[in-house]
Design a protein that fits this description.
The protein is built from 2 helices and no strands. The chain is rod-shaped, with a radius of gyration of 33 Å. The protein is mainly alpha-helical and 137 residues long. The two termini are 49 Å apart.
């Protein structure tokens, strides 16, 4: 295996690792967004319940303050995960660019080898033609 093929293999492995990392980050973000949606649903359910029960209205303010804090914490986590996701996407894009460069280098090497082989074959045929031309005389 040539050094170019080794670089392609390494860059492919790096891209796979980065894809897995990105997938894990996206899963965490989706889970956090789901948690936020659940908190919002809990808030709506509490508002509906306390609207019907006058005695529980006293507890609503405390519940809503706590809910607001939990939602803010989850939103902060989502924002941080989103930034991490952007970084992972950028790293993955760079890995794919590097892999493409290595593949282009390998292609250029193969083309160069084919040209050199063609040049050698043409030189051999020219030499054979010259030998025949001189042996005919």
């Amino acid at each position: 295996m040539s050094w170019a093929q080794s670089l392609i293999k390494l860059s492919s492995y790096e891209a796979e690792v980065l894809q897995k990392r990105l997938s894990e980050i996206v899963d965490r973000r989706v889970a956090a967004e789901l948690k936020l949606a659940i908190l919002e649903a809990e808030g709506e359910a509490e508002l509906a319940f306390t609207a019907e029960e006058a005695a529980t209205a006293l507890y609503r303010a405390g519940f809503m303050d706590g809910l607001k804090l939990r939602k803010a914490r989850v939103q902060t986590a989502i924002d941080l995960i989103f930034m991490e996701e952007q970084g992972a996407r950028d790293a993955l894009a760079e890995a794919f660019e590097a892999q493409k460069k290595y593949e282009q280098i390998a292609d250029n090497i193969r083309v160069g080898e084919r040209k050199e082989l063609g040049r050698r074959e043409a030189a051999a045929l020219d030499e054979l033609g010259l030998r025949r031309a001189f042996s005919v005389r």
